Amino acid sequence: MKGDEIGLEVKKQANYLFVDKKYEEAIGYYTVASRFGQSTQIVADSIANRSACFESLQNNVAALLDCKAALSYGFGHDNESKQKKAEARISKCESNLG
Predict the structure, then answer these.
(1) 37: Cβ contacts below 8 Å, ≥ 6 apart
(2) How far, in whole angstroms, is CA 24 from its chain's centroid?
(3) What residue ranges of the chain have pLDDT lower than 70?
(4) Cα 23 from Cα 2, distance rounded (Å)
(5) Which of 57, 45, 37, 47 is nearest to 82 (CA)?
(6) Mean pLDDT across the chain, nearest whole number?
(7) Distance between CA atoms of residues 51 and 69, nearest Å
(8) Structure confidence by residue, pLDDT tens digits, 36-54
């Protein structure tokens, strides 16, 4: 299996965990997916999804850092809805942090 194939498979498993609200476990899977992914899209998507887990756990610092990292990898560059979602999460985290 190539890196992107592994990254996509691991990300898929993380998505199931996220839906089941197993956020801490999903964070580990998204981290693995981001490390195996060779394309910036897989890396960006995995980091953005990990950010959603951190947000659900009310870890605003980690969610904020991951959102900014995902955007730097090009998250949402081809999907305005995704980009706006990440920007909204950044604003929410910054607001929560005061």
Answers:
(1) 3, 4, 7, 8, 11, 43, 46
(2) 13
(3) 1
(4) 26
(5) 45
(6) 94
(7) 10
(8) 989 999 999 999 999 999 9
Angle between helix 40-56 and helix 80-97 axes, rounded to 10 deg: 40
**Exposed/middle/buried for residue 79 (C-beta within 10 Å: 0-12, 13-18, 19+):** exposed
Helix (H) or strand (E) holding 3: helix 3-19
Give the integer Cα–Cα distance in Å for 67 and 45: 10
Supply the pTM of this predicted model.
0.94
Which tokens is 90 given?
């950044």
User: Quick count: other Cβ atoms within 10 Å of Cβ 58?
Assistant: 9
